[in-house]
Specification:
This protein is an alpha/beta fold. It contains 12 helices and 9 strands. Strands 1, 2, 3, 4, 5, 6, 7, 8 and 9 form a 9-stranded mixed β-sheet that branches. Strand 6, helix 3 and strand 7 form a beta-alpha-beta unit.
């Protein structure tokens, strides 16, 4: 599918569709889900995902918080922007514009994978430092030869206009999206989540957005900035993660000056989707113990 995802057709059965709104800010038309009342929490998904990755966590957190989850630039139903806007700094500026347009000052930011890097960047740039809890954080460059290889591959694929369409075409083969997700993440999730991922990776525009994000980031430079993020940070990592090795999370935790790390044995890269009730409890406890006290 070369055309963007269409909200009226592709989004017809999207999780929590009734909470969705479209907000124009920072040169983008954002798809945002908002639920609940109380201190605001910003939830940021990882590369290649969307708001659906929080589908079970949203209503659980909404009992005590105002939960705000956008599709990141180039992903799912958020449209607009350019190559430069997909860099870490560009995404930070765009999210800042979105929060200002919505009149939101997060008490804490929750991130998954690459969303943790955006959370740290955004939470460390505002007038008030914002605590961050991150699941399966992608904060460090690939080790060894991969440090140069993977960003270069993303750029090469992005320059080839057929690459996103080819990948999306393969993903639309029955069962292939599920097999790819298992290989890439080592996580087992339920049918609704699998259906959402299949719809996303079967769309070439979404695939192009994910590739653009990967090609635009410099995690080597970002990792050197980690000692400067002094807000409270709690990292939670699946011990069986195929996408981000545990050693990467451990290195990041050592560099962050006010950070704790928790390892969940047997869970993969989508740990928050494998055990959403547990994730919601951990997030709520972190916000109560750190974000609210920090704000006061």
């Amino acid at each position: 599918m070369k055309s963007p995802l269409d909200w009226n057709t592709d989004g017809r059965e999207w999780p929590h569709r009734e909470t969705s709104q479209f907000v124009t800010a920072g040169g983008l038309k954002w798809h945002v889900q908002r639920m609940g009342e109380g201190p605001p929490l910003l939830l940021l998904h990882g590369t290649g995902a969307s708001t659906h990755s929080w589908r079970t966590i949203l209503p659980l957190l909404a009992r005590d918080f105002t939960v705000i989850a956008p599709d990141l630039p180039g992903h799912a139903f958020t449209a607009g922007g350019n190559w430069q806007g997909r860099s870490l700094d560009g995404m930070g500026r765009a999210l800042q514009a979105l929060l200002e347009e919505m009149g939101v000052q997060p008490a804490a930011i929750v991130g998954h994978s690459a969303g943790v890097a955006i959370a740290l960047h955004l939470g460390g740039q505002r007038d008030r430092l914002i605590p961050v809890i991150g699941y399966n954080p992608a904060l460090m460059p690939f080790e060894g030869f991969g440090e140069q290889l993977f960003p270069a591959m993303a750029k090469m694929l992005l320059l080839n206009p057929l690459a996103p369409r080819l990948f999306a075409g393969i993903a639309r083969i029955p069962g292939e999206a599920e097999r790819f997700l298992k290989r890439a993440t080592n996580s087992q999730i339920e049918a609704q989540g699998l259906a959402c991922y299949a719809k996303l990776v079967g769309n070439s525009r979404h695939c192009q957005g994910a590739l653009t994000m990967m090609a635009s980031w410099d995690l080597t430079a970002f990792s050197e900035r980690l000692p400067g993020f002094v807000q409270p940070v709690h990292l939670v990592h699946g011990g069986a993660d195929n996408a981000v090795p545990l050693s990467s999370a451990q290195k990041a935790a050592r560099l962050l000056p006010n950070c704790t790390l928790e390892v969940l044995d047997g869970l993969g890269h989508l740990a928050h989707e494998e055990r959403p009730q547990d994730a919601a409890l951990r997030i709520a406890a972190f916000v109560r113990d750190h974000a609210l006290d920090h704000a006061q």
